[in-house]
Amino acid sequence: MGWLFLKVLLVGVSFSGFLYPHVDFHTSGKAKDRKPNFVIILADDMGWGDLGANWAETKDTANLDEMASQGMRFADFHAAASTCSPSRASLLTGRLGLRNGVTHNFAVSSVGGLPLNETTLAEVLQQAGYVTGMIGKWHLGHHGSYHPNFRGFDYYFGIPYSHDMGCTDSPGYNYPPCPACPQRDGPSSASGRPFLLYMGLAHMHVPLPATQPPADPQGRKPYLASLQEMDRLVGQLKDKVDRTVKENTFLWFTGDNGPWAQKCELAGSVGPFIGSWQTHQGGSPAKQTTWEGGHRVPALAYWPGRIPANVTSTALLSMLDIFPTVVALARASLPQGRQFDGLDVSEVLLGRSQTGHRVLFHPNSGAAGEYGALQTVRLRQYKAFYVTGGARACDGRVGPEQRHEPPLIFNLEDDAGEGAPLPRGGAQYQAVLPEVRQALADILHDVAGDSVSRADYTQDPSVIPCCDPARAACRCHAKEPSLPPGEVSRN
Q1: pLDDT digits (tens, 9 = 90+) for 23-37
Q2: Among candidates 204, 166, 155, 178, which has minimal Cα distance to 41?
Q3: Quick check: is 203 catalytic?
Q4: CATH no., domain 2-23+33-358+461-471
């Protein structure tokens, strides 16, 4: 199966050639006078410790490590949720799930997706004159108008959700018929326009793609072989950028959530963020949880001549920041009539500031509590849990849901492994607690007065894509082929 996903993802390597077949970027004007191109690469289920630049024990990410040495590495960067759909929805909207409506994963039979009244980053950049493309995993709705081609992407080639979620040949995908794809300008009329490429990698989700046999005759562990393959894919894409549009292209690499510990040796590394308080209770403190291992993810930014090289930023940043930052750098405007949870962190990226968020909120993504509820508050170096719980671990155990009032508070500066909460009667705890309570009250009040969306999580078997091997990836076709009477299209 790995060959398919390699083919899907390698399409992205030639995307810049698809957009700019006639333009020589080395002679077509000063880079700083043009709007920048953006390449956003999102890994799936990659652990913070899977990046060698983060964790010395990892030796399998040579290309990513080189990118870190040539750009900026973020040591305290967080996904907006700790599972697939909510994380991706927040990346594309700059809004937490409580606002954009996406609080848990969509299924293969989901009727809905990212609410249609939410504005995506691709739609904003389209309006600003960008050509937009998406390669790989979408997982924000595949039926009808939830398809990427209706959410701001001129071009899409990929898979509609995680590659372990399956499909069926009956009933057909287009029953009832899907709307025809939007008509877009072809490559020739797109020449000279800036572009956005959003690449959703299948790696490191299971089943692990691996197209090349291990070099080690004894055989390498499947996870490490797949990690090396992902690293090579990113390296190929970066090399293509460097050869064609290097001086005016901003490349941002990060992950959607932490490793899926339930998969045992097929899961990645959380590095030092072991969540030992939770492991003593049972269950995993990684993906689907609000422990650091669930949402602290690798993150790199690369833009030669603009982003300083070989810099590690300790600013508290989030995937939520990608939307407002890219919009600002593109000289576009944020959508009106809604609040955003991300920040424009251009000053951090350009090396002029180390100031990120004072407060971040981590929503429940499946381990404990109500979906989307802001049950954990990060305040500077402190982290307060109102609800704790573990996801299913390799040994099959699931940590019990526990509610805490007053909350458990950890000092991550002294306790990255989240092992020992501050004593509730201590001066440090008492000094931080009022700030935590106020921060949580403020955002809940803000959300209550905001334009909030609701996602449709209804399921219907008739919207499951087919398994036609000739159409193994999710594609959109501008014109339906003619069919014999009574036959259902399965494009």
Answers
A1: 333 334 455 578 999
A2: 204
A3: no
A4: 3.40.720.10
